[in-house]
Design brief:
The complex is a heterodimer of chains A (139) and B (69). Chain A contains 4 helices and no strands. Chain A has 139 residues and is mainly alpha-helical. Chain A has 2 domains: 76 residues; 63 residues. In chain A, helix 1 runs antiparallel to helix 2 and helix 3 runs antiparallel to helix 4. Chain B has one domain: lambda repressor-like DNA-binding domains (434 Repressor (Amino-terminal Domain)). Chain B is mainly α and 69 residues long. A two-stranded antiparallel ribbon of chain B has the order 1-2. Classes of the chains: A mainly alpha (139), B mainly alpha (69). Chains A and B meet through helix 1 and helix 3 of A and helix 2 and helix 3 of B.
Chain lengths: 139, 69
């Protein structure tokens, strides 16, 4: 089985590297969002140009983060990928259904408190919960 | 889907981790296949067949209610 160990180390190393890469870009993207948001609150932007640059940088970092997530998915084995795909399907579904329900609640006057932050939180929470559920299910 | 993975692995005294290493997948994936919770893709099934030097149909059987021997 000696030759086999080399393959596994490759999978393990690949998985760790892609996870770290994805986490790093997620942190960078989230950091750029927080910085850009705080800058607006503190009135750091002089005119629309600097604000537009901040938004463009955040957007570009977001694209890099998504690309890192796709590389992360490709580095996984097929079961891990299935767990992620199931989690993505559930979180996108929760986002669409939840988003429309929130819009309906607002238009019918039932609530006006739900906003985009609540929706993003719902998507993240659904994704994390369904990933954990998938890991436990196939344990 | 039924499979004889556990038996074939035991015949060679391999652990799930050994088999996972050979297939370049996680131990969790090997366990999920063995317990029938997850059906492998065709490329992974072929990899298993080559590893155990058996035809795929000797390892996997989609007739759920019949005993494999």
């Amino acid at each position: 089985m000696n030759g086999m160990h080399t393959h596994s180390e490759r999978l393990s190393a690949r998985s760790i590297r892609s996870t770290m890469n994805y986490l790093l870009w997620t942190l960078v993207w989230a950091g750029s969002y927080v910085l850009a948001d705080k800058a607006a609150l503190l009135g750091w932007y002089q005119g629309t140009t600097s604000a537009a640059i901040a938004v463009a940088v955040n957007l570009a970092l977001g694209v890099v983060m998504v690309a890192a997530y796709m590389r992360h998915l490709r580095a996984m084995d097929e079961l891990q990928r299935k767990i992620q795909m199931d989690a993505l399907a559930l979180s996108v579904g929760a986002g669409i259904v939840g988003g429309f329900a929130m819009m309906l609640m607002r238009s019918t006057g039932l609530s006006n408190g739900a906003d985009i932050n609540t929706l993003i939180l719902l998507i993240f929470a659904t994704h994390i919960a369904s990933t954990l559920f998938g890991c436990l299910r196939y344990r | 889907m039924n499979n004889r993975l556990k038996i074939l692995r035991a015949e060679r005294n391999w652990t799930q981790a050994d088999l996972a290493m050979a297939l370049d997948v996680s131990r969790q994936t090997v366990n999920a296949i063995e317990t029938g919770k997850f059906d492998p893709s065709l490329p992974l099934a072929f990899k298993l067949a080559r590893l155990f030097e058996r035809p795929i149909e000797h390892i996997f059987d989609d007739r759920a209610d019949e005993e494999m021997n």
